[in-house]
UniProtKB/TrEMBL annotation:
Pathway: Purine metabolism; IMP biosynthesis via de novo pathway; 5-amino-1-(5-phospho-D-ribosyl)imidazole-4-carboxamide from 5-amino-1-(5-phospho-D-ribosyl)imidazole-4-carboxylate: step 1/2. Residues 3-228 form the SAICAR synthetase/ADE2 N-terminal domain. This is Phosphoribosylaminoimidazole-succinocarboxamide synthase. Belongs to the SAICAR synthetase family. The keyword Ligase applies. It comes from Sulfobacillus acidophilus (strain ATCC 700253 / DSM 10332 / NAL). One of its GO terms (molecular function) is ATP binding. GO terms for biological process: 'de novo' IMP biosynthetic process; cobalamin biosynthetic process. The gene is purC. The lineage of its organism: Bacteria, Bacillati, Bacillota, Clostridia, Eubacteriales. Its EC number is 6.3.2.6.
Length: 231
């Protein structure tokens, strides 16, 4: 298979069919824009399975995604999107950089979800940007950005109860979108790498913050999330 792209957590290969790609999920883990590096055993498998499960479920709710089907433990067959250079973060609670930026303690509830836009640019460290910057950088038109915001908020409305029913608080998560034949589609992944997932009862962190913050029990947390998500 021809390797088209290798990122920090995934490789992307060309498939035999034009317009279709194969995403391979790696066990490699990075944090703080690649400054911290490591491996999380079976992370690739957890993230591929969880992404496939959640994208399939979202498609049943009429949210378009790039997923065609899961090929095996680590590989997904996806549509080739023209990616939008944004990371869209939706927050239901205060954590991470929002806590740092505002001084609000982690765990503070938010009654109206907060949506943030980050410019996907490793050299700049993925900075927080606003709608005018999106226009300035030609990342999306105002109409397109409005559609992206609507879609991200709708996904949050579906995912919150999905996780809640499984004893998980969806604190925040990151989405990436792209275009396929004029249609806005959810791309990339939804996994413990890209979400903050806390046990509803104990508030234990069951996500990549265990790796970022050296909390231990990283693999166990990923397996626990997979078990709950696959039911
Ligand atoms: P933050 O609080 O560090 O800004 O992260 C917000 C959410 O976005 C959190 O669920 C983790 C996710 N995220 C990514 O998926 N990729 C990234 O590079 C970063 C910084 C955060």
């Amino acid at each position: 298979m021809e390797l088209l792209y290798e990122g920090k957590a995934k490789k992307v290969y060309r498939s035999e069919v034009p317009g279709q790609l194969i995403m391979e999920f790696k066990d490699d883990a990075t944090a703080f824009n690649g400054q911290k590096r490591g491996q999380i055993a079976d992370k690739g498998s957890v993230n591929a399975q969880m992404t496939a499960r959640i994208f399939q479920w979202l498609m049943e709710k009429d949210i378009p995604t790039h997923l065609i089907r899961r090929l095996d433990d680590r590989h997904l067959l996806v549509r080739q999107l023209t990616m939008i250079g944004l990371e869209v973060v939706v927050r239901n609670g205060v954590a991470g950089s929002l806590s740092q930026r505002t001084g609000l303690p982690e765990g503070t509830a938010i009654d109206q979800p907060v949506l943030e836009l980050y410019y996907k640019n490793d050299a700049l460290g993925d900075p927080l940007i606003n709608d005018d910057h999106v226009r300035l950088l030609h990342l999306a038109s105002p109409q397109e950005l409005a559609a992206i915001r609507r879609q991200a908020m709708q996904i949050n409305e579906w995912l919150r109860p999905f996780f809640q029913e499984r004893g998980i608080l969806l604190v925040d998560f990151k989405l990436e979108f792209g275009w396929f034949e004029g249609q806005l589609m959810l791309g990339d992944e939804i996994s413990p790498d890209t979400c903050r997932l806390w046990d509803s009862q104990t508030r234990e962190r069951l996500d990549k913050d265990r790796f970022r913050r050296d909390l231990g029990g990283v693999e166990e947390a990923y397996q626990e999330i997979l078990k709950r998500v696959m039911t």
